[in-house]
Hints:
Elements lengths: L5 E3 L6 E5 L2 E5 L1 H6 L6 E2 L4 H18 L5 H9 L5 H9 L5 E3 L17 E2 L27 E2 H14 L23 E5 L3 H8 L33 E2 L4 H5 L4 E5 L8 E2 L1 E6 L2 E2 L11 E4 L3 E4 L12 H4 L10 E2 L2 H12 L7 E11 L2 E12 L2 H4 L1 H34 L7 H11 L2 H17 L6 H22 L5 H20 L3 H10 L1
Parallel strand pairs: 9-13
Antiparallel strand pairs: 1-5, 2-3, 2-4, 6-12, 7-11, 8-17, 10-12, 14-15, 14-16, 17-18
Helix pairs in contact: 2-5, 11-12, 11-14, 11-15, 13-14, 14-16
Amino acid sequence: MHKSKRFNLLDEPWIPIISDGKTAKIGLIDLFRNLDTIDEVQDPSPLTTVALHRLLLAILYRNLKPQTLEDWVELHSKPWNSVTVLKYLKNHHDSFWLFHPERPFMQRIEIANEKPSSLSKLQLERSTGNNSQLFDHSADDATIAMDFGAAACAVVTTQCWAVGGGKSGGGRPNSTHGHQLLGATLLSRGPDLWKTLLLNLVPMEFLGDTPRNFFRQSQDLPTWEQPLQGWPEKRPILGISDWLTWQCRGLLLIEPPAKIDQAFEVIVVQGESIVDSPLIDPWMAYTQDDKEGWRNRRINPEKAAWRDSESLFAMYRQEGAKSNSSVPLIAYQALHSEFPECAGSLTVDVIGMANDKAKLLLWRHERFRLPAKFFTDESAYDRLRQALETAQLADKCLHLALRLYAEEFLTMGNRSPDTKDLSNHIRAISRKESYWAALESCFHRFLQQIMEEDSMNIWKADVVSSIERAFGDSINSCDTSPRHLRAATKARGYFNGLLYKNHLKEAKQHAESTA
């Protein structure tokens, strides 16, 4: 149990920021006082970056909570005024102690008698429990020291991104995932931190449709204002600030001796569960499953996020649509429609973690710049979909050509090859990963030029150049035997025929002739 009050998050520096191109750490009071002069909050871990933005949004929702689009526009039209938020924080100063005898920030004293673990439990990039060794080779019992600021970030991050699947002990239910593992978070970015937070502080009327109507409940309070109750418990969501600060884990940092300003151990157990837990988070895109209904769009470990941009940025709902974008993007589209003077192009970060049950696989952080036309012209979205379909079609052409090569190489056309041998050979020679990697920068250029007359032909030319290079690299990775040369010649002719048949070669030739 904590014996003293130590490290208040309002006053002590702990939030990583970028301001005037320089990095620093500041407390919540200084951050909200200077919200419009800070470029951004950014931690080396994108998971922590998301978690900190959710904490800041919870504070803003508690104090500002725009109800309508008109309320939101009024906030957009005025400079940042810190008076209300600073008064709120100072009134709740006692709620923000990292170590506190009764109520440490986003922690629970009730679990003080449980067995403590290494702080590696709070570092998702470390190899603890079932986690893959993503970025280090530490062990569960390794001694990890964190300064108090880093420990505070780890607590906030764990409450968003904790990985479930383990036994919690003490008669508690097994551990469940944190909410952010449900899908990819879309974080709209503005020119400064105030504008970034404002772009994500969507009006309450956009959160009122089923199944998000629980965000409109009037008794909404962040976790530090709620009365202490039994632990753990299963309860309904009180509202948006409650959701943003939900304690999916029971945590308690072990307080070090008075003269030591580093933490070494933490107690971790299963936290609060949600009654009728919803799958939809306003800051995530979601897709419709015929059996399970709407589900959050997850990070795919096999491909970059830009390849899923059709569903991530699906703001135009048509009859029978299977995808829908995040609520901030839908609200920004409405802002474009009703108050175009307040809106323009928009930068969006896509951040998420891929996991296989309780095992972490990787995280992604990709940044997109959506042109203004994307919010006002539905044909821009249609072009995006067409561009991605073109890229996928070229990938299919590559696979078919390599399949023909493998069949000819393995059997000289005299018999059908063994299915397993065929798959292994294609996998061994294919360089399709390099194709998709080469297209990424081309895609971002296409996105900026999406409504220009020749943008689609230029994109198709980039696709053909990249797929031809991938085909050549795949074939050239083989030997130089007569068997190989015969198979390669046949596959190359087939590959070129596929490109012409699907009208890809013509686009490249057109782009080259007009260059």
